[in-house]
């Protein structure tokens, strides 16, 4: 594998493939304006996403980003350290590209009678570019630009059903909260810059001791950065856009935002906090251990998400709140960093995000299928669907039980490892015991509302007569692939776990 | 002498000149009260309609396209200034100096061609034309 002979900048190839695909879609639409050739557009998008996936996996296997000490080709730093390609970058790019491919295939049917086809797919590609760039960003400037590049297309995508009130309202709310949190994030960046004099993450870490006189400013800046990350990952206190945006948006876009966008939000949070603000050095300057903030946020986020999800009647809203709950689980990765074995906790959180990427995308795609059928939005409307569509409903059962964390599905193992590592970290940080308890209690609660949906689909009788349900190829294919990936994640869990743990260790190291 | 004294003097003069002009005209001008002086436009134009006007979407399209090319100029200008030096330098060849800018302009041109082809720069359409290309 002749990676070494390639120039350095080719390490960004996954993001470049996304850009090239977006431009190809523009060219297709320029040659034949307002084309409705869905096979061509969705096909190009899916091929682009799969190509990005292929390049990423190839890089992983060839050892790009793996430290030379472990027989790899070394971490690639680009443009004076503004971008970095390491194992964490490749790990999260994998998640983003798989989810993008699934969403593109599912959209083929879901957006069938939409007027603006090429706009839709090119916006998806541009958002995916931003997410891939977020995975590689290594300076507060590139983090912010990548974040905006991922966010701006998302606003348009949420509001793309122009004549649907819910979609437009969701888009506006999403945009306003996004603008607010971007402003807060940017202000946080300026405060960190003011205190340390640097924007590049390693440079910030090297200059932390010089910021002694500005401890308060730096602390405030870090707090504001947390606000920006909380928005992108849909965690408390910037979570309230999520139920609105996910409910109003086209369901494949909800899947895209709640899986890929959330994973990308977590990768920048992980990278900024592990690289720029090492726990001990930062605590010495600002006087507070910032992991405390994440302990609180993790507990509040998972509790709020799960309790709110348990009270919903609308399936899409239930999934939206459950996605907030899962953000709480992933936040444990940052909460555990001050303890010994913190990198194991973070690796477990990355693992959970990986598995979550498939099962959550699949669950939202099932909602997309239900919307395609037009059966309605509430649990009762889903009653008895299994009699007419057993395959899709079997897949739904897999997603739901995996999200709840029932053995032997992938979701169980990622939660189990997260739990054991959290308990392991509790030896040096007592707060982790509370976090671990919250994780178990919330998982038990989540089983209630996940199984409620499975019960509605498989056991309850339909309320009224339903017409025969169509079997759209694209949606079915995407759902089945997501289900297969959720199941296959089980035997493949060893390599995934290794990759996540190594990536976390290198990021912290 | 402290430099700030000169700046303070300048600020003082800058404040005194307009105040002085207003005071002098207040003393010299004749007083002719008249109702038309209280109109919105003293030229005599009678304002009609509300102040909340909806602009045609075309306005924003053109503004956005203008912005794109404005930013392009901002990037092209410093690049053009250092271009000769970059060519002459040993470590950068023509590929390093010219390549990224060509890539940037090509991306911009693809976007512009797309906007043109999909009618972003087309002038506003009549209701009949809009009807013909109705969308949902």
From TrEMBL, chain A:
Pfam families tied to this protein: Proton_antipo_M
State a GO cellular component annotated for this protein. membrane
What keywords does the record list, in alphabetical order?
A: Membrane, Transmembrane, Transmembrane helix
State any single GO MF term.
NADH dehydrogenase (ubiquinone) activity
Question: From which domain of life does this come?
Answer: Archaea
Question: Where exactly are the transmembrane stretches of this chain?
Answer: 6-28, 40-61, 88-108, 120-137, 143-162, 174-193, 213-231, 252-273, 285-307, 319-339, 345-370, 391-410, 430-450, 473-493
Its localization reads: Membrane
Name assigned to this protein: NAD(P)H-quinone oxidoreductase subunit 2
UniProtKB/TrEMBL annotation, chain B:
Q: Name one GO cellular component term.
A: NADH dehydrogenase complex
Which molecular function GO terms apply here? Answer: NADH dehydrogenase (ubiquinone) activity
Protein name, please?
NADH-ubiquinone/plastoquinone oxidoreductase chain 3
The UniProt transmembrane annotation reads: 6-28, 59-82, 94-116
Q: Which Gene3D superfamilies match?
A: NADH:ubiquinone/plastoquinone oxidoreductase, chain 3
Spell out the InterPro entries in the cross-references.
Answer: NADH_UbQ/plastoQ_OxRdtase_su3 (IPR000440), NDAH_ubi_oxred_su3_sf (IPR038430)
Q: Which domain of life does this protein belong to?
A: Archaea
Q: Is DNA-binding among the key words of this record?
A: no
**Short name of one Pfam family for this protein?**
Oxidored_q4
The subcellular localization recorded is:
Membrane
Asked whether the keyword Iron is assigned, the reply is no
Which family, according to the similarity comment?
A: Belongs to the complex I subunit 3 family.
